[in-house]
Amino acid sequence: MNVSEQLPILQVVLPLASAPLAVLLRDRLGAFVLVLAATWAAFTISVLLWLQVGESGLITYELGSWPPPWGIEYRVDALSSLMLMLVSGVAAVVLPYSRASIEREIRQDKHYLFYALFALCLSGLLGITITGDAFNLFVFLEISSLSSYAMIALGKDRRSLVAAYQYLIMGTIGATFIVIGIGLLYIKTGTLNLADLGVRLQAMTSHRPVLAALAFLTVGISLKLALFPLHQWLPNAYAYAPSVVSAFLAATATKVSVYALLRFYFSVFGETAIFQRLPMEELMLVLALAAMFVASTVAIFQDNLKRLFAYSSVAQIGYIVLGISFDSVTGLTATIVHLVNHAVTKGGLFLLLGAVIGGMGGVTLARVHGIGRVMPLTSFGIVLCGLSLIGVPGTAGFVSKWYLILAALEKGQWWLVFLIVLSSLLAVAYVWRFVEAAYFHAPRADLAGVREAPLALALPAWILVAATLWFGFDTSITVGSASRAAAQLLGIAP
């Protein structure tokens, strides 16, 4: 048996198998080592798959040797290979951070459960990205969602239980809409294979059951990706979850949901059905602009930094959806690039906020007064991530916003360029609130003994901060992969 031929299934199976084994071990160190090994193996596999796709194109894997559409198929193309590498890469960086982080945020007797849930969530996210079967996608979506609810609820802060419950209710509603949409597609076409669905739906896009399926899937996935105004679960979930959970979910969960939306829109229903026969371009444009401006404005008035940057995530999702609304290669390239850039930026940001919680005892603006003097490196890292959220040249955020501007100019929408720049100025306002608290106030008297974050917390965070800066200068991986993926989604490239 050639191991290289089994890489697609190993991508999902390794972290999935590590979850029950971690529970059986019931030892936090043993569970950590096991899940860490599975996570790093998954990241290695994703890099190999990305290289294979770059060399030879589409990779398909038939489960149980059942050919599609009768059996479940795993498919790896330019878009899914990039997403696999993003999700597993973030997990590989975040998990070592968790070893020190959860000591103060999760009860010790629950540590092994955290690692099991982390592995389940990772396998679910990877499964969504790699599967070529609609119902299989739904199953993996629920695996990742259920484990996310549980990870949020593990926090010592009692508010984390309420946040997890809110997320559970909203997530369940979203999942119900998704499964109804998939059911309608199956009734109409008799297949669940995504590629086969795309072929069979070409002649049915105007049929009412298909339009109803599109509506259900759009609403359900929009709930999962926290598109305004369906974002209500996100601020509390990010604010009150353990820091490592906030970082992981902010960097991966909503991004994979966007991937699912792209896959259904362009690979299943088709670009013609979505944007030429329906007013989806106008609808997505309005919702994207609302997210960019409303969420950024709300962020300005937050006192808790985790909630502030949670609302920032809602605004950044607006930029991602804006790219989709352009219905062009440049627009989709901007969307996919921003997926990656925002993931590494926000992942690093929440990891740094976790270090602040460890040092300062909280992340309210009043609590972090003078942090720039007592935790200079951590503060500087937060500022760098903030600059990326604004879109300052030299950061990853600039690259994706630049492509959004190019996409707007291609369509002759000069007014939209103005709005993109104006919304970035709102990001300046909420990032400045941290700068003012960190550098223009004296440290609290009771925090005089606070020191810089320990290496176990600082190193993973700075890896993602470094990636934020690196992708601001070297765009070969992000823009290169994104442009190929965009062309494939629009049917311009094979």
From TrEMBL:
Keywords: Cell membrane, Membrane, Transmembrane, Transmembrane helix. Signal peptide: none annotated. GO terms for biological process: ATP synthesis coupled electron transport. It is a multi-pass membrane protein. Pfam families: Proton_antipo_M. GO terms for cellular component: plasma membrane. The keyword Cell membrane applies. The keyword Repeat does not apply. It comes from the Bacteria. The gene is mrpD_2. This is Multiple resistance and pH homeostasis protein D. One of its GO terms (molecular function) is NADH dehydrogenase (ubiquinone) activity. Residues 133-426 form the NADH:quinone oxidoreductase/Mrp antiporter transmembrane domain. InterPro entries: CPA3_Na-H_Antiporter_D, NADH_UbQ_OxRdtase, ND/Mrp_TM.
